[in-house]
Amino acid sequence: MARLADYFLVVGYDLDKRVEGEGQGRILQRFPEKDWEDSPFPQGIELFCQPSGWQLVPERQPATFIVAVLTDINSERHYCACFTFWECLDNPQKAEASELDEVDEDLAVVQATKVFAPKSLVLVSRLDYTEVFRNCLGLVYTIYVDGLSAPLETVIGNLLTCVIPIAGGSQRTITLGAGDRQVIQTPIDDSLPVSGSSVAQLFRQLGIVNVLYLLCAALTEHKILFLSCSYQRLTDACRGLLAIMFPLKYSFTYVPILPGKLIEVLSTPTPFIIGVNSFFRSETQELLDVIVADLDGGTVTIPECVHISLLPEPLLQQTQTVLAMILDPELEIADHAFPPVSSQPSALKIQDKEIRAVFLWLFARLFQGYRWCLHIIRIHPEPVIRFHKAAFLGQRSLTEDDFLMKVLDGMAFAGFVSERGPPYRATDLFDDLVANEVERIRQEEACPHKVMNHVKELAEQLFKNENPYPAVAMHKVQRPKESRQNEAPNQTPFPGLDDVAVQLFIDHASAKLKSAPPVVKAELKAMVPSGPPLGDIVDRNGNVMANSARRLEVVRNCITYIFENKMLEAKKLMPAVLRALKGRAARVCLTQELNQHVLQNRAVLDDQQFDYIVRMLNCTLQDCSHMDEHGIAAALLPLVTAFCRKLGSGITQFAYSCVQEHMVWTNMQFWEAMFYSDVQNHIRALYLESEDGEQQKNLEQQDGSGEGREISALELASEQNRLWPTLSKEMQMERVQKEESTVFSQAIHYANRMSYLLLPLDTSKNRLLRNTGLGDVESVSNSYVTNSIAGSMAESYDTESGFEDAESSDVANSVVRFINRFVDKVCNESGVTNEHLKALHTMIPDIVQMHIETLDAVHRESKRLPPIQKPKLLRPILLPGEELVMDGMRVHLIPDGREEATGMMGGPPLLPAEGAIFLTTYRLIFKGTPTDPLVGEQVVTRSFPIASLTKEKRISVTIPMDQFVQEGLQLRSCTFQLMKIAFDEEVASDLAEVFRKHMHKLRYPQHVQGTFAFTVGQCGKMVVEHKTKDKNQSLRTLSKNLVKSAKRTIGRQYVTRKKYSPPTWENRSSFQSELDEDEISVSEEVDQQSSLTLSSTIRSSDRQTMSNVVERACCRDYQRLGLGTLSNSLTRSNNEPFRISTVNRMYAVCRSYPGLLIVPQSIPDSTIHRICRCYRQNRFPVVCWRNSRTKAVLLRSAGLHAKGVVGFFKSPNTPTAVPSQAESTSLEQEKYLQAIISSMPSYSESSGRNTLSGFTSTHMSTSDSSDKLRPPKIGALMKQVMGTKEDVPGTFSRGGKWGSIRGSGRLSAYNPDVGTRLAGKESPQPNGGPSEALFLRQQKAFLYIIGDKAQLKGGKQDSFQQWEVVPIEVCDVRQVKNSFKKLMKACVPSSQTLDPNMSFLRCLEESEWMTLLHRVLQVSVLVVELLDTGSSVMVSLEDGWDVTTQVVSLVQLLSDPYYRTFDGFRLLVEKEWLSFGHKFSQRGAQTLGSQSSGFTPVFLQFLDCVHQIHLQFPMEFEFSQYYLKFLAYHYVSNRFRTFLLDSDYERIELGVLYEEKGERKSPQVCKSVWDYIDRLNKKTPIFFNYMYCPEDYEVLRPYTYTSNLKVWDYYMEETLSEGPSYDWEARGRQERVAEETPEKPDTSGPKSQRHIVWPCYDSLSKTVPDAITKLLQDLQSLEAELGQTSEKWKDTWDKIKTTQRAEIKLESKPSFTSSLLMSSNLSHQRRSQGVYLQESGVGSSINLALDCEASATSTPVAGRPSTSTLYSQFQSTESENRSFEGILYKKGALLKPWKPRWFVLDKTKHQLRYYESRQDKECKGVIELADVESVMPGTPTMGAPKNIDEKAFFDLKTTKRVYNFCAQDSANAQLWMDSVQSCLSDA
Hints:
Strand content: 5-15%
Number of helices: 62
Oligomer: single chain
Structural class: alpha+beta
């Protein structure tokens, strides 16, 4: 029973206290005066009566009624019903004027007239009967207003003494003695909330989704704020929200109506549900973490920073569906053609209960089976119950669910457990639902209509609970008369009440209550049913796989094998078991199996068994989360203290010392749950023993389940609670004591257990404190700690040092602290007495100390154990001269992001592998065997040159087999190799540190002489440090050094490098003379016409140097190109346009250029000295190649100095420091360029006579079609190349956009005509053909300068000059560096990623590597086109040693077939890259000095471009792709000296340049990569391209669009069987047997005919060689068998080829091999287009290029019509073009007849062409005279023309083959031979 109302108050406006216009209320009267004992009077009610503030108003307001809720300190709720009306004030003048000024103006108006003040009648009650309160207060008001006869005191006295029952469903009629009557309806069960219709209202106001958000927010403890204009609505909404939370109760701040004065409460840090009037909305704006629900607007606003966890799916969806069916039943049938007649939603009251029923159903599903996770830890005197959260989540497989985790951790759920946990209590609807309806809910959950029926049933029960009887209209309450309500009532204010009268009433009533007999209502207590246990719900992903019986079988078998000591069998099963243990069922199975092998808590194993069991335990625990939701760790806990092995006399090592590294052991919640479950078991046992069988039977009969079932602890507890009151005091005491001592003994047991698992085996290491979460219980860190079974990875070698105690005490202290915290918590919760608790605290340090002592002994002994058998370390094969720096350290090679080796893409898991890492002077090598026993006999090798290491970082790795976390390293190499290694526990950590230091020393030596290429073969591991460099030394000694160094080889002392600064120009004369007198006196000035040869003027001491210089690659190439010669026999003819200048012989002009340079004949060396200053690094323009056909030259230089000397494009009037000198230099430059232009025959011709005819003769064919086609091609190229950044590379339209430059507002910067002219755009003629004059201008530029856009700003183009500047954007070196880093990460990722944004193709695209290749190739193709049309080109970019080198080399490679042979390519690299000073050392970060600049693979980029061209023209290259890969590998490997140092100057200085010619110290050590390749090439065809079938003078024009480029497989491939295949000596031993045939897989006899080839393991070219290689191998092995000396493969191949292709070139039909190769599906790797068009001279190449851009797969068509007139310009008008012509018979290819042909000898073009007949315009073939070696008389062969003199036959021998000719007679033959000979000698 309870009082209906506790207090009645009258609260009025306080006229005395007005603060700044804010009124205040005060309590005028309060009854009763004294507080009730059971409910103290709540403070601050006056604030809540007027939540918006106390104010005076000028007009009377209608009376209002609100219910505020106050919560007292005991979290009891008090409902304050406030009835407020307005009274007229007597004397408003009381308010002083001063105050009124501050108040709003309307108060000032009020002053004169009447003012109304609010007054409130308040009832305070602990019951929530809103309507009853409204009626009672209304009655009091009515009596006062209408002046009814009933005295107010009586009414209030009755009200305060009215007592009603709290629950039970009875009706109580009350009257207050004013002729009124009310019926109060109590709910049947007071545990269910009463909601009226507030829930339905809430859903109507906010909608389904919003309310669900609010519910989840409230349950997960967020702050919720309701806004509305109506206070009553706020209260209802809050009440509704609490009602749907049932059975959880809200335990935080709950204020449905918050007064405006207290608005700052909203910034409290704790969660709350608060209602505030919308009037205060602005104040709520800046709250950042509050969810605001606006009831009037129907919105819920969730701030950005708040994340609400929602109900788990599919619950959320199902709940929404059912709610929609209740709130909007028409939704479902809205689309039906014949909707049912009535589908109205239920009445509001019913709908309210239906919604609540849905939430009941929802919570029953969320919490089903919760009672099976309760631990009862005390039964007497009070039940103490704990909930095992982890087990609950585990069984529901909702461990990942954010919402449920938060709910279970929340306060509401804690209250739920303490309220509903006890097993013996009254039950309600929810208990019934969880116990009995779970099955029904589970079956129906998917079918909304069945759910709906269930919800309706529940709703009925809820409705009945609130309204047990049909409504009876017995209410009779007076209301004030209508007129009274509106007009001003009598002026008297609310009267003061008589205190004494009311108090008398109250005293009288309480006396009566005391004398009345107590109402005894038997509480219906019963045992709470638990409901069905939680079955193993299948993981939501349907993860049934994990439980497959086969896996469990494997686990069982493996354990059986271990205990039967069948170790080999167990070893085979082990990997499968470790994989299976990822599944929960297998882990459970493991614990059950292991349990069976434990006898009397002990199982002694031998070492091997122990090791396996520990590995399985570790693997099992590794996948347990720190919560241990599946109870695996709990089940293993008794096992780890049972399994042990004997280490020595009386020393036993238990398994726990090897499984400590798991987070679960440091998680306090885990230990608590374990402790409670053990305590529960013991207490259950306590009562099961003490009970005689009677009670048990009794229980079972009640339960009706017979003998089969065990009684659960909760059932026992419930029975005990039922009997408790019947026991005597002594019995009760005895039971309490027994339980307490049970808990106490368990606490001691757990203190021991925890010390077992928390103290590390080696307590001297401070490991535990650093890494586990012990320091702070809450921190659940995720890192495992390095464990060692034998603890041998001691961090210091002297564990026995004196500090051991000090350190170990740290570990001990922290463990003691952790155990103490645990003991305090559990003992307080489970009611252990204080004495016992103190005893425990004294015991714990002793327990820990004792355990530490036993551990020390174990640790000592375990160190002595023979290590577990690990695989033998395999030794790597070292190269000659390679030495080990550090011997093998045992490591594990961990898989990285490449999936091939892990077995994920099929094939066996080759990684992880166990082996050793070796550091040698040259490489870093891992060699070992896979850990997977199925491939255990394979050998895994991964290695890379130490010089190619680009990044090294420390990582910590969990080794999958052993579950130990190890420290490791991740090493990345620019040979696209990644090694992730984890050091084995036997490797001491300082050893790993030593390894790193050595590695760094080797990677970045102090000086380039520390690199492997220099130290190879020398004794002594490391190169000594060099002295610091002495700065200034005279030039004389420098040059002496240069000369001496030529005679010196590397063995002697090193030269110190000097920094050389050239003297100032004022002192030039003295400088010159100093030079002359010292060394060389070559006459520099060509103007003196001296015919002295170079050699004759050089002092004898220098002969050797200069002859070496001459031998260098450059000179050989210059002579080949006819750019100048240096020899004694020929004097330089003055008519040659170019000469070889020795101006740089001392490297004085330009340090990074070669000693000999090609400059125009007319330029004296003195000019060069001046010109070079204009260019960066003094790299002035020099000629590096000449087109033998058009005689156009290719020049290279660095970019112009941006500041300093004014460039020649700059406007002449720019002010400069030294005008005269600057201008002269500028003029010199112009002179220089003009000299180059004059050297071109086309120029001299055009200037020599009629310009137009000159142009036509050399530049245009009169064929119209070619005119239209040619120029736009170059123009388009030009535009693409010059395109600004906005153009996406690779996506240019064919037309390109010149506007990109024009529109950029920098018109002055470039001459916009360049592109338009080249594109042939300005065509005034209507027919589109270019006008003559215009065409003249189109061809104007003789020299194009490719310059950097950024540099050429502000330049001015002179319209009369013959050169044009083509500004392009070059890629920065930084760009290349970053792009390469990203490329490496894409090709060799360090870890696997599932992120779609990190897929290979995405990363490749982001690296922009292909875009960079595209840019370089595009510029190169443009230059090729320009050269081919007869314009010279000067490439003048950056410093002239990166992009310039790339472009220049590619241009030569594309234009000149010679460079596509072995010799040519070598020469190209030596000339352009080595001699012209590409900074290999700096770009490759080869030394300590260049470490900071990082690795920039400019040369690799060039090789990749060559690879792209090779792919597109596979028949044009003599070398194979492997050759390019070989160079790519060795240019960073530092194995050879070829790519060391930055220029020839540095190489001479170190004596590297010429020593190759001298005697070699060790013949097996090659110093030059070229020699090595030559040697290897003689042995094996690995570098040779069998498809090599070159065309004569073929210019290649590759596609450059990004879409045409392929990723180079060099970046992706790897061969784990032998490591990279580029160090030929290191390839497997078995090949040494067949040294001649390194490609032979195995010749050891017919073991098996089959061999499985794994893509990332075997070298495919070796195991599956191509057909030709295979045949050559077979041939050699057969010769070897027959005992013949086998001939070299090249000879064999050449023989076959010569027989095959005797006459491919000159025949119209392609011969056998050619057609074979063409038809063999090469279409995608297009052969060069237009094979048969190439002879057709100048113009054709352009059409050709257009055609080939258009058709990627076009195969050559012999003779296209468009070329029919190509030779028309060689008509009689230009007779000199046909120096000699006539008919000759030519012998056809093999087995072909002799045929007569019309031959033309052309001196100008230097070629011999032939046609079908004289009239024929189409050339059938060309013999380049440059290739002709000799002409001599021949002999007739088979099938020769009859009746012809023998002397008429003659042979022409070229470098490629011999042609047989036959003239009409001997004289004619002699004439031909003479003509050819004269052409040859002229050249």
